[in-house]
Amino acid sequence: MRSISSSQKENILSMASNGLPTGHIASELGLGKSTIARVLQDLLPDCPIPSVGHPTKLSSTDQHCILLQIASGKVSNGVQATTHTNFIILNAVSLQTVRNLLKQHLFKAVTKKKKPLLKAVYKKKHLAFALKHENWTVEDWKRVVLSDETKINRIGSDGKQWVWKQVAEGLIERGVQSTGVETLWYSIV
Known about the structure:
Elements: H1 6-17, H2 22-29, H3 33-43, H4 60-72, H5 78-88, H6 95-104, E1 107-111, E2 113-115, H7 120-132, H8 138-142, E3 148-153, E4 162-166, E5 176-178, E6 181-186
Parallel strand pairs: 2-5
Antiparallel strand pairs: 1-4, 3-6
């Protein structure tokens, strides 16, 4: 890294104090933008570094709306959040803009955990079966013949589904994918 003369540092400081952006200062002095930012950080450590790049398309209200939609579970993934947002605001935003916002607020995209659809009725039936056969011996279970099984998908495919959740969150209800799978047992006697 080449050193910068004190006169260049003074020029950088004066141009920055006049309100010129880092890119303009860099092109005037023939230096890189990162060099200008580093020099300004060294000379003025308490001064905030000006943001670079395109200004955000999302207002703070739009950002809050997207975060609230994801956190409440009304939308579960970035595509749904983007569609919902573009329906509400005037300037359409891309999926990547929504993803960047979620990552900036410590959200993480994870796959939904697959879990069978167990309604209260099914749970009661399972418990009743377990209690009824609680005292069965090994000999009793040897008389039961379960020869084969097949899986039937009733709801959707076996593909992955994604959900955004905050990094500190554990397992949440909207992060569970109900499989809707029934296992059919049959035997030939």
